[in-house]
Design a protein that fits this description.
6-stranded mixed β-sheet; Rossmann fold; alpha/beta; 8 strands; elongated; 3 helices; 41% strand; two-stranded antiparallel sheet
Length: 208
């Protein structure tokens, strides 16, 4: 559980997602007591809001498949200590049979200036000559914007409450492009959550 409780720093970087690539880092253990029907969902990031967003989306996906799921952030606030004892108490209180942990593994960001798309207006009016028109073009060019390209790697692991051991794990690699002036889209959280839960279901960890 030591790795479960390690805190990793991250940024709330949200934007246009080009897809999630997933690889298994630990196949379902032969000793696993899966499938699970009552899961405590934990995400570990420096930002409480990032944790809450992702946990909420994962819980939504799990409940959509008939699995009882509880977000750890729904049982705590920003002042609650993020310790082994805190999560063990949650597992006991909720009667959970598994813990799903997601945390940041790697983050790379590249920034580049990008020309803004110009906007144009046209005014057209006839002349005294047949089929000849006057055309006035006005073009508005905005200042250059900064485009941020991110590569994020998240690790998700399932811990069995019964065996107290990690029984399954994946890594997801996501590439994002976002305009520096237009941040705040949380759709990436839903995309990540759907991908994680799809693999949980595909590998037989969820009770049907």
């Amino acid at each position: 559980m030591t790795k479960v409780l390690s805190l990793l720093s991250t940024l709330l970087i949200l934007g246009a997602c080009s897809g999630v690539q997933v690889k298994r880092i630990q196949p379902l253990a032969e000793t696993a007591d899966a499938p699970y029907k009552n899961v405590l969902v934990v995400s570990l990031f420096d930002s409480f809001d990032v944790r809450r967003y992702l946990e909420k989306e994962i819980v939504r996906e799990l409940e959509g498949r008939g699995v009882r799921a509880v977000a750890s952030t729904s049982l705590m606030d920003t002042k609650t200590p993020v310790t082994r004892e805190t999560f063990l108490a949650m597992l006991d209180a909720e009667g959970s049979d598994a813990l799903l942990l997601t945390q940041l593994v790697d983050l790379n960001t590249e920034a580049k200036l990008k020309d803004a798309r110009p906007k144009s207006t046209y005014n057209v009016w006839p002349t005294y000559y047949y089929n000849v028109y006057n055309v006035q073009l006005t073009e508005y060019v905005a200042p250059k914007t900064m485009e941020l390209n991110h590569t994020i790697v998240l690790a998700s692991q399932v811990y069995s409450v019964g065996t107290k051991e990690p029984v399954w794990g994946i890594e997801s690699n996501t590439k994002l492009s976002v305009d520096f002036n237009h941040r705040g889209d949380t759709s990436i959280m839903a995309t990540e959550a759907k991908s994680i839960v799809n693999y949980l279901s595909r590998d037989g960890l969820l009770a049907q």
